[in-house]
């Protein structure tokens, strides 16, 4: 990120940039910053945008070889093409010696570092990864935005907010915007404010549901399931999320057994340390055998729906009853 900031600041822009990684908010932010630095907003003649898996390398190369119209640059942004996983060989060959007037910005969630296209872009331009940000980075970011609004928040309230929103920066930004509007007349943001206005994510419902199952609180577990159905969540998606939760708990339990602390566990499974801690506590309520059995039951429930032996709503309900009884 620092390299891109420096390029924009000095005006020494590269012909090729790749922005990749799981953090969509940062990818979009730097995509837009590069676009603004490379081309005038009103110049539609020399700006081309491609998105999706059907991007034609031939069409892109033809455009790149076309001289810009009354401008110094032709800017081409290619997003979510999948070319950095497969099919990017033709473009990789061209980018070894591209037109000097053409500037490329690739934006991808995933990129195979072994691919020819990735190696070419890294050698000829700049590749920047935007991973899920650390707990410390996210908290500093949130605190900075709260400070700009001349408000305060306690450490415990901040943690509660992060638990509610997760690690997705776009979701954090939206929820914080709502929270700031809600607390417009207040100096300090409280946990109750967060509880009142911030959206409870589906994944939080699933976590709470599995907790209720582990504690044998069948009524609470079923109520959470019915709440999700009321929110128009498809039963098969709920089943998928339950299975994912059990799979995550199994991984966390195995890592805890090996002596890993919460920070290392979080790094291994893609969770913030304090969230990994919550998962470790939940995982301790199950044996490894219980978790494997629950995962197998999820597969069986899905199969019973696909083969028509049971309807989707009932299959998930019976799964919850079985393990919370």
TrEMBL record:
Keyword S-adenosyl-L-methionine in record: no
Positions of the DNA polymerase III delta N-terminal domain: 17-129
Pfam families named among the record's database cross-references: DNA_pol3_delta, DNA_pol3_delta_C
Highest taxon, organism lineage: Bacteria
Membrane spanning stretches: none
Catalytic activity as recorded in UniProt: DNA(n) + a 2'-deoxyribonucleoside 5'-triphosphate = DNA(n+1) + diphosphate
Keywords assigned by UniProt, alphabetized: DNA replication, DNA-directed DNA polymerase, Nucleotidyltransferase, Transferase
Gene Ontology MF annotations: DNA-directed DNA polymerase activity
Stretches assigned to the DNA polymerase III delta subunit-like C-terminal domain: 204-323
UniProt-listed Gene3D superfamilies: 1.10.8.60, 1.20.272.10, P-loop containing nucleotide triphosphate hydrolases
EC numbers on record: 2.7.7.7
Family: Belongs to the DNA polymerase HolA subunit family.
The protein's name in its UniProt record: DNA polymerase III subunit delta
Top-level taxonomy: Bacteria, Bacillati, Bacillota, Clostridia, Lachnospirales
